[in-house]
Amino acid sequence: MTEPRSETHVDVIIVGAGLSGIGAARHLKTTCPDRSFMILEGRETIGGTWDLFRYPGIRSDSDMYTLGYSFRPWTEAKAIADGPSILRYIRDTARDEKVEDRIRFSHRVTGAAWSTADALWTVSVETPSGPSVLTCSFLFLCGGYYSYKGGYTPDFAGMERFGGRIVHPQAWPEDMDYAGKRVVVIGSGATAVTLVPEMARTAGHVTMLQRSPTYIVGRPGEDAQALKLRRLLPEKMAYGLIRWRNVLMGMIFYRLARRRPDRVKTAIIDQVRQTLGPDFDVDTHFSPRYNPWDQRLCLAPDGDFFQALKAGSASVVTDEVATFTETGLKLKSGAELAADIVVTATGLKLEAMNGLSLSVDGAPIRPAETLSYKGMMYSNVPNLASAFGYTNASWTLKCDLTCEYVCRLLNHMRRKGLRQCTPVLEGETPETAPWLDFTSGYVQRSIGEFPKQGVTAPWRLHQNYALDLAALRFSGLEDGVMRFSNPVARARQAA
C-alpha cells in the first residue's frame, strides 16, 4: 500500500529534472511503486542541459538510439538529433510517464545533511519564497557534472578593448544577430564543431581559432540500417537491436583506439584528408598531439563542419590569442583576425556532487577524499547516488543502469527491513586514480575536486557498458563492501 504523500518528506529526492532526473523518476515509479519521491529542479522548466543551451545548432554528439532511454524508443529519423528534438523527447517522456506532478520547479538544492540516528537526509533548498528544508531517506543526484551558473572563459588580455560582442555558448543571448558578420569561435571541442557550420550558413565568415587540433569524425546524421530495421520489425524490438549494435560498435572502436592508437589516429586523419582534399593543411589543423579518446572525439553529422570549410564560409586557424584588439584578435604568431563577434567555446566549469554542501553525522563530505563506488556512490556516504554517464559513450547508457541499481537497493532494504546502505571503505586506502582519465582542459581544471577511483572493483570506474551491466544489473548487492544497516524495528522501539 502506498503511503500518504508528505509535503516535507519523501522516500527519495531526485535533484534535477533533465535527461537523468526524468529517467530516474520513471524507473522509481515503475520499479518501486510503493516509494514516494519528488524531483527538485532549480530552474523553471524540464530539460536540464537541453533547455539551458540555446546556441545555434545545439545537438547531441551521441546517437539517439543509445542516448535515448532504454524504456522509450527514439522514433525520429535523425540519429544525431538537434537540441529541440531531444528536449521534446524528455518532456514527452515526463508527460507520458506521469511524473510531471512530482517536480517542484525553482527549488534549488544547496546542501544536505545525513543523520544515521534518523536515517534521513535533511535537504536545504532555495525557493522563490525563501529557504526551505525537506527530508528524504535516499538522495539521488541527477544534476549532471557542470555548473549552470556559467561556462569557463579564460582571462584573455585586452577583452575590455574589443568593440564587438563576446559571448559564451552557455549564455547565448536571444537577440544575437550574426547574419553577415565576421565571427571568430575560440575553441575546437564539440561545441565549436557544432557552432561553426551552423553559424556559417548566414554569417559573413566564421573562423574557428584553435590552440591545438581535435579529432573530428564525420558520420551520417541518419542511420540507414536503423531506419530499415524499424520498418521491418516492431518498434521496441528494432530499438533494442539498434541500441545493442551501437553499444557494441562503440565498445569495439574504443578498445581499438586504446590498444592501437596510431592505427586509429591514422584512419581518422586520412578520412579528413580525403574529405578536404590534398590542398588543405590537414597536418597543421587536424592532426592532434594526443591519442584518440584521451579526449572525447568530436562528431560532424553528414560532415557539415568539413563542408563549411570546403565552401569557404568557414576556416580554421591554429594559433593562440595574444590579445584582443578594438577590431578583433591579435595572435601569438603576429597575425590578426578581424571580428564583429567572438564566441568563447572554451569549456565548462565542473562541479562535484552537483556542487552541494554535504555532511554525514555532522562531518563534512569532501568529494576529493572519497572513492567512487561502481561509478555511482561514494565511500562511507550512506543512501546517496549520482547519475553520471560515460565519457566514451552515451550518457544515458550508464544512467539507466544506475537507476536500476538504485531501485534494487531500495527494494532490498524494504524487504530486509533496513534503512541504510553504505559502500564502506575500511583499512588502508587502495591505490587510486583520477575519476576521469581525460586530458581535456575542462576536466583537468577541476579533476582535483572530484572523487577518486580505485584500480580494482568495486571502486573502479569501468567506462564499459558490458562490465557495468554485469556489476549493476546482475551482481549481488551484498558484496562485502555495500553494508546494509539501521533496522526499521530498532527505530520503532526507540520511538
UniProtKB/TrEMBL annotation:
One of its GO terms (molecular function) is NADP binding. This is FAD-containing monooxygenase EthA. Keywords: FAD, Flavoprotein, Monooxygenase, NADP, Oxidoreductase. Belongs to the FAD-binding monooxygenase family. It comes from Phenylobacterium parvum. Its cofactor is FAD. It holds the Pfam family NAD_binding_8.
